[in-house]
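tool_log.txt
---
The assistant was asked to compare two proteins side by side. It first ran the structure predictor on the initial sequence, then on the second. Raw inputs and outputs are pasted verbatim so the downstream comparison step can read them without reformatting.
(1)
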Amino acid sequence: MKHKSIFYAMFFFVVLLLPQVAMAYSFFETSPSGHKLYYSIVGNNAIVTYKEYGEGDTSMVGDIVIPSSAGGYNVIGIGSRAFYHCTGISSVTMPNTITRIDADAFAGCTGLTSVTIPENVTSLSNAFSGCTNLTTVYYNATNCTDTYMPFAEADFSGNYISSITTAIIGNNIQVIPDDLFGGCVQLTTVAIPPSVTTIGAAFWRCSNLTNINIPLSVTTIKEQAFQYSGLTSVSIPSSVNRIGYNAFAHCHNLTTVFYSMDSCIYNYQYGSSLYGGMFEDCENLSTVHLGSSVRYIPPYTFYGCTGLYSIDIPDGVRVIQNNTFGNCTGLHSVHLGNAVARIESKAFDGCSSLAAINFPRTLTHIGSEAFQNCSGLIYATFPDALKVINYKAFYGCSGLTDITIGSGDPLLSIGQQAFFNCDNITVIHSKTINPPVLSGTVFSAASNITVYVPCGTLAAYNSEWNHFSNIIETANIFMLTVESDDETMGYVEIIRQPTCQNFFAEIKATANDGYCFSHWQDGNTTNPRMVEMWHDTTLVAYFDVVSGIDNLSYEDFRIWSDNSQIHIRGAVGVPVNIYDVIGHRIVANTTITDDEAVFHVDRSGVYIVKMDGRPIWKVVVTK
């Protein structure tokens, strides 16, 4: 009897509810299109609703026009399931009084092929699910803040279903709200007008969307905006100054990025939870163009982009942020710009193919685990300015064989295990007079490494670097580079190397026929020249073209030769330099004081005469 009593009670309760479900509307009225529409009164307004049992009037066919007012009320919304499964509807026209379109309002309306969202809509739920022939959306809502997958749905397996192929954003739209086209897997065309300033998380899982034009008006791209989309290339304009985590993450077809943001505010963390980078796990991304004005690349930006082969960092970037290129296992070469001062923790962690990277002279700090497990790295040359190599910075760089430490001051500090498990290192060139400070065990195979240090520093290194058994003083610790500004005019050579007893190297510039040595890049004109080697040095020789012949005149002066003499007339007050044919200067910056100056030479041959403000002349001297 107890079970029967419960049954009767439940039956009575359901019966009481039936009239409320059956009579959901407050009144009905014929619309301008001739259709009987049903309305519920909400405050002083009305919304379109269903007739009975939570379903629209499935007998309705053709083009529906919803009025702006009915029964003396402003029509402000389309209620839930108002046109549910009205498969005969071919179009719907909504007035600008509409502010809300509720869940399932047009669900299952398979006759709809396009829809226009009015400008005053502020709430747009999953209203068009099951509209399998709806392909085009005209979106004009200027202040819509409440949206959730209005044009897509997910099945029980988590697959997204949508028939939308084209989205036209109205010319007055400033914000494209979150989830607006999320899950629209058939979407191929999106038109974003130059009025838009913010792109929300609006295009995630749009797997057939291959291209998007982001106008210069856009300043904000929110988190997950294009995550898992089908984009193959994207250009982020310089106007963007704020971008959210995972904005383009997991775009598996993305191959090319044009990145022009000067700098931006980037959030890859929400509370205590860590989210992903801008292009994280875009494994087919192979080409990245960073604009010359770029100053900031956020953390995790290219994390896991395994197809990226090389990257050039512009000169405006000062910091390589943490994990920016982490696990880019295909990254082979990196060129750091001339302003990079810091490489933060894990910046290149796991880049196992990285074989070449330059460390610019501005670099002062390498963070912990910055190059951990970069097993393809063969050598590392650190600049004079470097102050810190942090904990495990190069841990597991098993391909590393050669390290060069700059000669900077203050002292370089190398963190614990910075070069641990780098067991193929055989040579360290340390150019600093004061041994770098080693924090604990830095090298795991110190006994196998030969360390070359500057002359006079052996005792200090033996004391501070006592883990190493083979430390050698050498005068050749510093690099001397000599170059010709134009090798068709002449060449340069090192004719004597420095030693620990004599720190001077000797260099010589030799002019080719028809040319003469002019000067070194620092203005020095001595040739051959002695160079003191206490730091890395590069010197470039400049040459000039020789013109003229024996016995010549120019304006008010004359040059000629007579036996073993060179005569110059009419050049009082003019400095003169005379060189032999191989570049030795035999007369150096001598100011002419007589109307006719006479210069004696030792032997016959061709001599070069240079006077300020006048051509360079070649004079033949015979005895």
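(2)
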Amino acid sequence: MKLRNKMMISMFISIGLLIILSFILYSTYQEITKTIEKGNLAKEIVTNVIELSVIRTDYLLYPEERAKTQWFLVYDSLGKNIKKAEKEKEWVHILKDIGQKYDELKSVFSELVNYKEGANEPKELEAGLVEKVLIKSQEIIFIANSLHDLAHAQIQSAFKQMIILIIGFIVASIIIIINSFIILNSILKPIAQLHKATEELEKRNFDVKVDIKTNDELEQLGKAFNKTAEALGKVEEELKQIDKTKTEFLSITSHELRSPMTPMKAQLQMLLEDYFGKLNDKQKESLDIVLRNTNRLDNLIKDLLEISRIGAGRLRFNFMKTSLNSYIDTTINEMKGFMPEKKIKLEQKTEKLPVIEVDPDRVMQILRNLLNNAIKFSKDNGKIEISAQKKGNFILFSIKDYGEGIADNKKERIFEPFFQGEGMYQRKFGGTGLGLTICKGIVESQKGKIWFESKKGIGTTFYFTIPLVPVREIKTIKLIRREERVKGRETLATGREERVKGRETLATGREERVKGREGIKNKKKVRER
């Protein structure tokens, strides 16, 4: 059954029950109202009968005109009430008896009144009339009491019906609530299951499955979810295999590339030192350019090796018990010689740090990379503030510069490999774009954190933490999130477009140079002539 049909059936059942119960309640209410009115009428009849009896006694004791007049008024009121009650079918036989006794009482009481007003009648007749009036009054009181009892029983019966109906209404309401709960549960429980499974999927647990058997759209959605999770699991396995292959390829390639680099550098240095014969200045300048680019290539290969080790969880640490203060001092003194033409002032605000088990070379590698970037992007004659202090179970480092800052649209990708603030192919300050990525890998492999605060045109502060207790079991670190890969592809696409434009520009330049050479040749020919 479709989910919509379930909801419609549940809704119609609930509405139908409510309408039926409301109609019955209304009908019962009207019936009770009528029964109460009948009870009041019966009460009035009984009251009239009692009043007649009281006035009769009063008249027998004190035969005055007032008592006689009052008796006949109450008598007339009783007659009117009897006529009103005649339409009630349940009271027909009782009212018939009351009517008969009513007429007889009037006849006897009229005789008694005539006797009282006439003085010629014998005393024995008065006693007989009084006795008759008493008998008829008792009979009508008895019949009136039976009417009152009947009316009271009807009222009680109506109230019982009302109570039963109210109980039925409550039971029906409970049924409606239970029915609604069952329907809602049949919807909410699968949704909750899907929500929990989605959270597991977000945690990259692609083995998660949902078991929804509601025979409706939710069951179809559950089957679709299971297929999607299975497909994502396969994609994830493929990605892991690709990442593994990529890491292995990067590692092997980096090692193979680095192997010939050492003898190449050695040979170039020997040439520059005139080991194979004296060189002129032009030759030395050319070899110096080659050596500098060889060193850059060697540094790039080193960084690629570090990236491959981080991705594979094979990053090496040499832990020792030491305080980092002396290492920080040495690193800052070394960095004062980097880009001296900018005249950057390095201000150290480091408190005395405790002796901990740590790899100082790795920590200084992070500090050196961050200081390198801070100096590059600082303004001339600027300053950089370096601080280190113990915070809880970590040592917190901060490197603050007052340079260019990082644009908001670049912040999300700042730790991505090969990414630079100025773009991948428009690098103002050089470098491979791997420094921050390596810093992130080293910090996170030790369960630390690295982050930054930056405002464009004001400056940037980088923070990172090192634990007091080292992490010896190194796990793989994902340096590129999936969304970063997408952005990376977009950047590569942009780079390809730039390269195409660059080639077109170079081609245009070659054509212009060829034309220029032809023009020079033509001028020479003209001169020779």
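---
observation on (2): The mean pLDDT is 77. The two ends are 102 Å apart (CA to CA).
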